[in-house]
């Protein structure tokens, strides 16, 4: 079997498993990059030595260590699949470990920047209330951009203090809400009549779901309005995770809230922050604790 054929079969299998289009694009991009390096070869020619030479090649191109990790992670997933499907006799990833990436400090919003951000919205309008609630969920519960735009109204439990989120890999998880986020959701939902779409956040006509491009455009405007040039959706998620730990949350509950399958992804937020035992979410809510010293 050729490497090209194996890659195509792998991508089909990932699609059958229900992986998102974004994940499929990631695998295709990383594996096409590997195929460009190897050329038209068969799977029999893929060896541990070849993979190591590929890694050295990546380091010599000058790309960031985190990008190299991304390429190698995708390759390891593919090679593991080939071994499990018995297309390869050797489990190369068992001896081809993920290279260490440079550990960079996680950027977060300051108290003043958070105040400036949430002062940008006109809460007298539906759109202003909607945008405020979107940012509140990102900052106060750590939701990803896609998780916000796909959030279903039927999965919002304001009285109980949580929402049910459809995360990566189509996996659902329960995410707690802070008091300010509950108020933001109640204000927005009070302005939106019952509509035919399942998603919570909709466009002005109340019938069309908000798209990722809509939120990205919102953040481009907020950069100027709030005077935060580095502002982007994921910055709010980083700020949530860091402040959650600062206010006493522990990394295990943070892992569940963020929807990470591994603690390794969470440990990057534990930079000079002592982890304490969780008591109740409102005590750790970034918005509820804003300004408290």
Structure notes:
The protein is 49% helix and 4% strand. The protein has 293 residues and is mainly alpha-helical. It has two domains: 3-94, DNA polymerase, domain 1; 111-236, hpI Integrase, Chain A (Orthogonal Bundle), CATH 1.10.443. The chain has a three-stranded antiparallel β-sheet with strand order 1-2-3. It is elongated, with a radius of gyration of 22 Å. The N and C termini lie far apart (63 Å). The relative contact order is 0.10. The model is unreliable at 274-280 (pLDDT under 50).
Briefly note the CATH topology name of the largest domain.
Answer: hpI Integrase, Chain A
The tally of structural domains comes to 2
Described by the principal axes of the CA atoms, the overall outline is elongated
What strand line-up does the widest sheet have?
1-2-3
Major β-sheet annotation: 3 strands, antiparallel
Global structural class: mainly alpha
Helix content: 40-55%
Number of helices: 12
Q: Which residue ranges are poorly predicted, with pLDDT under 50 across at least 5 consecutive positions?
A: 274-280
The tally of strands reads 3
Give the averaged pLDDT, no decimals. 85
| Cα-atom radius of gyration | 22 Å
Report the CATH architecture of the largest domain.
Orthogonal Bundle
Q: What proportion strand?
A: under 5%
